[in-house]
């Protein structure tokens, strides 16, 4: 699945999907797609990546996000079996996922990296923990593949000729530079050393407003869901946050709309 410029879910690896009347069973029908190495992307590969996210050995910070899928919390916390997780490949092209309760935004969640297929041979044994540490053992089923990667400096993407929609991909190569400092990123952009600056700050938008108006800089905006939250440590018996009223007070003290409009500025509340 992928999001269009308006933030709406569109078919990608799955060409269509069905949802049961009670909203608990999602059945995805996959299109013919291949990895950069020519192998077909199968339903089991999609199941593999999500189950791997839940693997307690991997210790993914995203695992709890999917506890609404049947039996995955037990697997992730070590009290259940991997085989019980309700993420199943019914055949090579059909993936079924069963939920414990209806999740209206589930298809939006499926646009995340946790639903990018990985061939099981790349995550077997010791490869399970090391997957993603280099490009030699990675699966590429999307628009681009990683041709070169210099840790701490950047990486080079090349167009994936096996991608199902490769004819609509207009770029052959993308060079990504990893620059930590925001001010350095902005300076490199202004000096023409980089062509695109992502996730710009509200302050930089204000600074560049006139150049945008004069079309010296082109601003591209698209809808992207994000969630900001505070986490309270309520495990400390001596801590104040064991008191639910205090946690509620902190929550009530936050003016969410003002924070988005006056502090973040470039975002908007849901």
How is this structure best described in words?
This protein has 270 residues and is of the alpha+beta class. It is 23% helix and 16% strand. The protein is built from nine helices and nine strands. Strands 3-4-6-5 form a four-stranded antiparallel β-sheet, covered by helices on one side. Strands 7-8-9 form a three-stranded antiparallel β-sheet, with no helix packed on it. Strands 1-2 form a two-stranded antiparallel sheet. A hairpin with a 2-residue loop joins strand 5 (87-91) and strand 6. The longest helix has 12 residues, at 43-54. The two termini are 21 Å apart.
Short synopsis of the structure:
With 270 residues, the chain is α+β, with helices and mostly antiparallel strands. It has helices at residues 43-54, 72-76, 106-109, 127-130, 182-190, 202-207, 209-213, 244-252, 256-264; strands at 2-3, 9-10, 14-19, 25-30, 87-91, 94-98, 144-150, 154-159, 173-177. It contains nine helices and nine strands.
Question: What are the SSEs and their pairings?
Answer:
Elements: E1 2-3, E2 9-10, E3 14-19, E4 25-30, H1 43-54, H2 72-76, E5 87-91, E6 94-98, H3 106-109, H4 127-130, E7 144-150, E8 154-159, E9 173-177, H5 182-190, H6 202-207, H7 209-213, H8 244-252, H9 256-264
Antiparallel strand pairs: 1-2, 3-4, 4-6, 5-6, 7-8, 8-9
Question: Which tags fit this structure?
Answer:
9 strands; 270 residues; alpha+beta; 9 helices; three-stranded antiparallel sheet; 23% helix; four-stranded antiparallel sheet
Give the overall shape, derived from the CA principal axes: globular
Major β-sheet annotation: 4 strands, antiparallel
Q: For the CA atoms, what is the radius of gyration?
A: 22 Å
What is the average per-residue confidence, as pLDDT, rounded to a whole number? 91
How many β-strands, per DSSP? 9
The strands making up the biggest β-sheet line up spatially as: 3-4-6-5
Q: H/E element string?
A: EEEEHHEEHHEEEHHHHH
**Class inferred from helices and paired strands:** alpha+beta
Strand % is 15-25%
Q: Classify the helix fraction into a percent range.
A: 10-25%
Model regions low in confidence, pLDDT < 50 over at least 5 residues: none
Task: Count up the helices.
Answer: 9
The termini sit apart by 21 Å
């Amino acid at each position: 699945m992928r999001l269009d410029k308006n933030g709406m879910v569109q078919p990608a690896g799955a060409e269509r999907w069905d949802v049961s009347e009670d909203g608990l069973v999602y059945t995805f029908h996959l299109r013919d797609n291949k990895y950069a190495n020519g192998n077909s992307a199968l339903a089991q590969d999609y199941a593999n990546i999500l189950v791997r996210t839940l693997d307690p050995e991997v210790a993914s910070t995203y695992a709890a996000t999917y506890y609404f899928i049947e039996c995955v919390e037990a697997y992730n916390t070590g009290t259940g079996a991997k085989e019980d997780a309700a993420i199943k490949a019914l055949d090579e092209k059909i993936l079924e996922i069963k939920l414990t309760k209806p999740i209206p935004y589930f298809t939006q969640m499926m646009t995340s990296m946790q639903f990018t297929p990985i061939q099981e041979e790349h995550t077997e044994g010791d490869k399970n923990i090391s997957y993603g540490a280099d490009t030699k053992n990675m699966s590429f089923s999307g628009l681009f593949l990683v041709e070169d990667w210099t840790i701490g400096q950047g990486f080079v993407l090349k167009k994936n000729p096996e991608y199902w929609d490769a004819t609509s991909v207009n770029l052959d190569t993308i060079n990504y530079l990893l620059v930590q400092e925001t001010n350095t990123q902005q300076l490199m952009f202004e000096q023409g050393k980089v062509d695109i600056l992502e996730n710009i700050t509200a302050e930089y938008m204000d600074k560049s407003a006139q150049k945008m108006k004069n079309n010296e800089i082109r601003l591209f905006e698209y809808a992207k869901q994000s969630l900001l939250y505070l986490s309270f440590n309520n495990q400390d018996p001596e801590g104040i946050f064991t008191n639910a009223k205090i946690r509620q007070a902190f929550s009530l003290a936050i003016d969410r709309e003002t924070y988005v409009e006056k502090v973040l500025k470039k975002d908007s509340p849901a």
